[in-house]
Amino acid sequence: MRYMAGLGGIRGSAAHRTYSVTVFVILAALENVAIGLPVPLYDPIARGLGVSEGDVSLVTAASFLVTAVAAVGWAYTGDRTNRKPLLMGGTLIWAVGFGGCGLAHGYLTYFALQMLASIGLGAVASVGFSVVSDLISPRRRGLVMSLWGLSHGVGTLGGTLVGGLLGSGSGPDDWRRPFLAMAALGLVAVVAYLFVYDIRRGQSEPELAPLFAAGGEYKHRINRSDVRGILNRRTNVWLILQGLTAQATFGSLVWLPRLLQAKAQAQGYPEATAIVVGSVFSVLFELGGALSIIGGLVGDRLQRRTPRGRALVAAIGVFAGVPFYVVLFFVPLTVHVPAGADKAGIVAAVLHSVVTSPTVAASFLFALVALALTSANSPNWFALLADVNPPEHRGTVYSMGNLVNGVGRAAGNSLVSVMFRVLTRALPPPLNYATGLAVFQIFFIPTGWMYYLASRTVPGDIDAVRDLLRARAGEAVARATVTDSPDEGQAVTTSP
């Protein structure tokens, strides 16, 4: 089908495409707002539901896994059908789940509704990745994927901040407000999806340009027999497996706000104040994730020189970030919050400490460097998945990687909480949190090594995909020239 301009020339225009990309990026951010939102509220949620802090953290760990498993089904369906209705349905499901969490009064109800929300969240990342990859030419994938990945990081920070600011307070039900706010945002997102541009599968691939120029459509779709081919592609294996160890560490880092909160409580601040202090510090320290754009740009530039470029940038970044994280965990924080200060006053005190306290300034610097280095992994991982897979496989292979990521993140999030409790016998807070997080940095070592191994296989896999797409486009155009001319306005299509 030809994509014609709609009413007023808006449909398919540059403005319409920009609007569509913006919606996809914002929804990816909201997904991660949902992930980070409960963490600074573990204590008040636990009290409100009559359970332990560990029980609440278990829900977060389980949600990682459920989201990842659900994403496989969403992605496979998206690689076979129209992706827009799937994204709308998934968003509606997680909005309902979060609204229910904000109204839940029992632990099992809260758990079940979080799992419902997690099922919906699985659609956003996997199907959304497939859509966004069709908007980006290979030459600029690192840059644009850095924005896609940055939306995830910004979302996690937003979740921490929204949870800490909206959910803190002396009232027993204050923790419910962020969940209800998320539900409202989800419903707004569903409406926004109604007006996004329907992006053609494979439209950004240079090898398919002759097909689209001839008025054709890329009609290849995934089937079950393709799964073996996906797993036989060696670069896919390394890109998928690295998530198990990488996310074990990243899953443990979900506890960073709790570490910073414990540092504030060690100075004698009450829990409500400490939650805000920890949440604001966490947001400040994780601003280095915004520098993933540099990692994407460097990956793009090096990739134009050697097809190993993106994988090498990711490997070096992961290895180099470890020592900066370890120092960050142990540097003491000193913040002076005036007695009786409201939330605005607490935030102002934290910001002031960045320029007046040497230890806070040092922590801020180490955090920026650590996040900047390890965040180079994200855009290059996204870009590599798109580079070594044809369009009809991308959502599924992303979901496979995301499933392994979910297992690693769930394991890291839950196991590090066990380590905290064990360490408490010898080390009081915040030292137990700092030590546990430092130990989990060891999982970054095999992560960097697997990126290095991927750098050795990626050149051949990229060439194979380009040859496949070029052959499919050539066959379709040649077939069209030897058959009867189609009726005027009829599109030339390939075989499924």
Gist of the model:
The chain has 496 residues and is an all-alpha fold. Helices cover 73% and strands 0% of the residues.
Keywords:
496 residues; mainly alpha; 20 helices; globular; cell membrane; MFS_Efflux_Transporters; MFS_trans_sf; transmembrane; membrane
Helical proportion? Answer: over 70%
Number of helices: 20
Q: CA-to-CA gap between the ends?
A: 15 Å
Biggest β-sheet description: none
Proper CATH architecture: Up-down Bundle
Looking at CATH, the homologous superfamily is MFS general substrate transporter like domains
Under CATH, the topology is which?
Answer: Growth Hormone, Chain: A
The SSE string, one letter per element, is: HHHHHHHHHHHHHHHHHHHH
* Number of extended strands: 0
Number of domains: 1
What is the CATH class? Answer: Mainly Alpha
Principal-axis shape: globular
Poorly predicted runs are 1-8, 488-496
Determine the mean pLDDT. Answer: 84
| Gyration radius over CA | 23 Å
Strand content: under 5%
The secondary structure category is: mainly alpha
Subcellular location: Cell membrane
Domain Major facilitator superfamily (MFS) profile: 17-458
Membrane topology: Multi-pass membrane protein
Pfam families: MFS_1
Describe this structure in words.
It is a single chain. The chain has 20 helices and no strands. It is mainly α and 496 residues long. It has one domain (9-198, 246-480): Growth Hormone, Chain: A (Up-down Bundle), CATH 1.20.1250.20. It is globular. 55% of the residues are buried. This is Major facilitator superfamily (MFS) profile domain-containing protein. Pfam families: MFS_1 (PF07690). Keywords: Cell membrane, Membrane, Transmembrane, Transmembrane helix.
